[in-house]
Specification:
Helices cover about 80% and strands about 0% of the residues. The longest helix is centred in the middle third of the chain and has 32 residues. The model has no long low-confidence stretch (mean pLDDT about 90). It is mainly α. The two termini are about 15 Å apart. The chain has one domain. Helix 1 packs across helix 2, helix 1 runs antiparallel to helix 7 and helix 6 runs antiparallel to helix 7. Keywords: Membrane, Transmembrane, Transmembrane helix. It is found in: Membrane. Its main location: membrane.
Length: about 160
């Protein structure tokens, strides 16, 4: 739930907070394009911080682990081939693509829909659209809880029905 909350937070911050700030000094069209630089900059700086501050794994960096013989050398091509030939990989790929693809589409289209269909301002349309992402905070947990209760009562059939 927290990971998928990002779409809602992005809609709210970019559309309802940053866009009005940028709009005061430039046209709406230019402000919307310029405000998109903010998450790109934050993402880039986060990547730089992760590269220089963090370890590759809980036991240390891969280069050091391999040098000390604590991690076997595995070719990237062999690892990719093993994953690509596993049927479970493709099933999960399709499931996730369908599920997260719908979520990305909703996050991208909802603000435009509320603006065009209901005449909302960009700021209010973004705030309303952000609710779809914020819904993940309780919906994911509630779905898991209900699934566990249905499983306790009816077994796997109950879990599948939720």
């Amino acid at each position: 739930g927290w990971g998928n909350l990002g779409g809602g937070v992005t809609q709210l911050i970019m559309g309802s907070v940053l866009f009005p700030l940028f709009k005061t000094g430039m046209s709406s069209e230019m402000a919307w394009r310029t405000v998109s630089i903010v998450p790109a900059f934050i993402g880039f700086m986060s990547g730089v911080a992760v590269y220089f501050i963090s370890d590759d794994a809980p036991k240390g960096n891969y280069k050091e682990l391999k040098k000390n013989g604590l991690m076997p050398e595995v070719s990237a091509a062999a690892s990719f081939r093993t994953g690509a030939l596993n049927l479970n990989t493709w099933v999960l790929f399709l499931q996730y693509g369908c599920c997260f693809g719908v979520e990305l589409t909703m996050n991208n289209a909802a603000a435009l829909y509320f603006k065009d269909a209901f005449g909302q301002t960009t700021e209010s349309a973004a705030a309303i659209a952000s609710l779809f992402g914020w819904m993940n905070l309780f919906a994911r947990g509630l779905g898991g809880y209900l699934s566990d209760k249905a499983n306790a009562r009816s077994g796997m059939r109950g879990r599948l029905c939720t």
